[in-house]
Amino acid sequence: MVVGAVVAVLRPPGAAIRSAILHFAAGVVFSVVAVELLPDIVARHRPLEVGLGFAIGVGVMLVLRSLTRKAAEKEKAGPTPALPPGVLWASQTAPDEAVRPGALPMGLLTGVGIDILIDGLLLGIGFAAGAEEGMLLAIALTIEVLSLGLATAVELRQDGQGKARTVGIVAALSALLVVGAGVGITVLKGASDNVMELVLSFGLAALLFLVTEELLTEAHEEPESPWLTSAFFLGFLLFLLLGMLV
């Protein structure tokens, strides 16, 4: 994930490539929902827990998006900072004085963080089931976290975040993979079906929100073309095929 962020920072993609990356990442995440989460949730057959976990997930993501938008609007509506003595135009200020980073996209970051955490849980459970299963799942998840690292870094840079801060945020998010793997191996391996349904249903709602309200919304800011749309289905198909090998 950090590698993807570094690549995006050092070689910032153009608008079309940015849209393709976001489409691809959305396809991969949607495939994770269809291949990894939904079958497991349906197999446990706990409708009450699924409804509760899903509702909590949607509510949390809506609240976070509302808070993020209010913070962004407040920042835009804030008073214009006074210019230094002798400076008549904002263009005369130094670049680091004239450009301030915008508010962090908390909806996107939360969705990505939950995705990475769930990936870690799945990875931990996979290794607990066997070394071969865990290794195949690790290969599949590598593709996903790489694309998410690229997409997240692209969005952070688009919002005016600095290079070092962008890489640092993505690195912090990637640490959730280790946390999730540890929890998956130790805590959730023997958890009851009720607990697992709540956790997975919450993650299901968060990931669907990430795809529909964050990744694809940002991707569609660029005029659509067949190859941009196909990037979504390519991401979905790639993880689907990898998931069949696990």
TrEMBL record:
Domain of life: Bacteria
Keyword Lyase: no
Record keywords: Membrane, Transmembrane, Transmembrane helix
Transmembrane regions listed in the UniProt entry: 20-38, 50-68, 106-128, 135-154, 166-188, 195-212, 227-245
Name this polypeptide is given: Transporter
UniProt organism field: Hymenobacter fodinae
